[in-house]
């Protein structure tokens, strides 16, 4: 009996020891680490605010101040995005008056400035960047002989001591200043718009073959100043133009539609204006290429209405028609806007980023479904706050370039 009690006691001691050890083993900590892999926002959107920023259904995930991105006196302007095809890392390309900053936002609540590419000439409040085949193409307005900087984005993989100060891989000197650069990734053509008004095409789009990214080839142009544009390989409802390369220019007081399939012989298709034109600034096709959504940059100032977004029916490219106006809830000026599926994501200066549901656009119904206001001071018609947005990252993160504050990374609250 005593021997049985001794064996039982030994067994009980070992069982208690094992239980204590199992409670302190590494697997429990590993489970915690896995659970904590969720990205924690800098500020959740709760009761209409994310920290000091008014919001609706969008959390503040990350932020980089303008002084870090461009220097102590810099201001922000355009932005774009790039996803490394090998590493799948996501990068924000942030334009400032002083140059472009490349920011790794793969861990969006801990963004890292990998490096900066200074301006090729002088500071400019209008700098623009687009991406093709892992190269960034950068232009600047009122920047003398700036030209188009070309930067190999795969160099970002090899930076070991960020931030690095880069030099461009190439500069295209076929023009000096340009307000914007437009790229059709399906054809490998870039379109520089808003160049010198006294040039050959008087500020109209310059056609540039970038199929060999570091060796651009001048390929013609189209006469007549264009402030911004979208270039597409057409696959919309107008059967006449299926497979054609179409350029839609936002040309100060009207929209102009051009067939640029033949760079040597571009063909005017049609143009359309609208009531209360302030400044025909920038627009984007819906994904079915039936409607074109336009932002007019000066109508809020000139006519006093709330933020107006103008929609056109482009079902027949030869006969474009006005479709509707959408008026937002504030008096802020709308700037750059982009379509992503059934949403139109708009940079609206002092009102920040606004997200519009365009599911029922055919029925002339557009509804604001979210926003993140990067300029909490006010929502007046003034040139402060959100300049541009980029809503195409696979992660669902959206970047906002703010003139005064810098780079915001936001995400829909339930994603």
How many helices does DSSP assign?
4
Please give the largest β-sheet: 6 strands, antiparallel
Overall 3D geometry? globular
* Weakly predicted, low-confidence segments: 1-36
Q: What is the β-strand count? A: 31
Give a description of the structure.
By secondary structure, the protein is mostly beta strands. Helix content is 10%, strand content 40%. It has a six-stranded antiparallel β-sheet with strand order 1-2-28-27-26-25, with no helix packed on it. A five-stranded mixed β-sheet has the order 4-5-6-7-11. A four-stranded antiparallel β-sheet has the order 3-31-30-29. The chain is globular. It starts with a helix and ends with a strand. Mean pLDDT is 92; it is low at 1-36.
Strand-helix topology:
Blueprint: H1 2-23, H2 26-35, E1 49-50, E2 53-56, E3 58-65, H3 66-70, E4 76-83, E5 90-96, E6 99-104, E7 112-118, E8 127-132, E9 135-140, E10 148-152, E11 164-165, E12 170-172, E13 180-184, E14 189-193, E15 206-209, E16 217-221, E17 228-233, E18 245-250, E19 255-259, E20 267-272, E21 280-285, E22 291-296, H4 299-303, E23 308-313, E24 321-327, E25 337-340, E26 343-347, E27 353-357, E28 367-372, E29 386-390, E30 398-402, E31 406-412
Parallel strand pairs: 7-11
Antiparallel strand pairs: 1-2, 2-28, 3-31, 4-5, 5-6, 6-7, 8-9, 9-10, 10-12, 13-14, 14-15, 15-16, 17-18, 18-19, 19-20, 21-22, 22-23, 23-24, 25-26, 26-27, 27-28, 29-30, 30-31
């Amino acid at each position: 009996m005593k021997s049985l009690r001794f064996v039982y006691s030994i067994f009980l001691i070992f069982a208690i020891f094992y239980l204590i050890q199992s409670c302190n083993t590494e697997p429990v900590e590993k489970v915690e680490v896995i659970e904590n892999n969720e990205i924690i926002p800098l500020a959740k959107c709760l009761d209409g605010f994310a920290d000091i920023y008014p919001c609706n259904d969008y959390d503040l995930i990350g932020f980089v101040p303008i002084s870090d991105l461009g220097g102590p006196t810099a201001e922000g302007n355009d932005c774009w995005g790039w996803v490394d095809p090998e590493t799948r890392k996501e990068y924000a390309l942030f334009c400032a008056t002083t140059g472009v900053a490349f920011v790794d936002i793969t861990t969006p609540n801990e963004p890292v400035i990998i490096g900066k590419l200074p301006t090729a000439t002088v500071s400019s409040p209008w700098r623009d960047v687009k991406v093709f085949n892992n190269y960034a193409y950068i232009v600047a307005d009122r920047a003398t002989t700036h030209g188009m900087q070309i930067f190999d984005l795969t160099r970002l993989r090899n930076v070991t001591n960020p931030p690095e100060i880069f030099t461009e891989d190439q500069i295209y000197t076929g023009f000096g200043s340009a307000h914007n650069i437009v790229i059709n990734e399906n054809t490998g053509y870039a379109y520089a718009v808003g160049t010198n008004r006294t040039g050959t095409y008087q500020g109209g789009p310059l056609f540039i073959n970038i199929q060999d990214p570091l060796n651009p080839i001048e390929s013609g142009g189209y006469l007549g100043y264009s402030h911004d544009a979208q270039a597409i390989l057409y696959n919309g409802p107008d059967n006449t133009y299926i497979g054609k390369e179409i350029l839609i220019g936002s040309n100060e007081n009207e929209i102009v539609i051009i067939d640029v399939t033949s760079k040597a012989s571009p063909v005017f298709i049609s143009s359309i204006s609208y009531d209360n034109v302030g400044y025909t600034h920038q627009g984007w096709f819906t994904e079915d290429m039936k409607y074109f959504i336009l932002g007019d940059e000066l109508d809020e100032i000139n006519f006093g209405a709330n933020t107006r977004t103008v929609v056109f029916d482009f079902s027949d490219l030869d006969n474009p028609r006005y479709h509707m106006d959408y008026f937002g809830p504030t008096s802020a000026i709308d700037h750059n806007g982009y379509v992503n599926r059934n949403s139109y994501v708009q940079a609206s200066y002092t009102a920040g980023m606004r997200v519009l549901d365009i599911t029922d656009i055919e029925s002339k119904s557009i509804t604001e479904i979210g926003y993140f206001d990067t300029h909490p001071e006010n929502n007046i018609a003034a040139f402060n706050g959100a300049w541009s947005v980029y809503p195409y990252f696979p992660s669902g993160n959206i970047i906002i370039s703010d003139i005064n504050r810098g780079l915001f990374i936001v995400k829909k609250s339930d994603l």
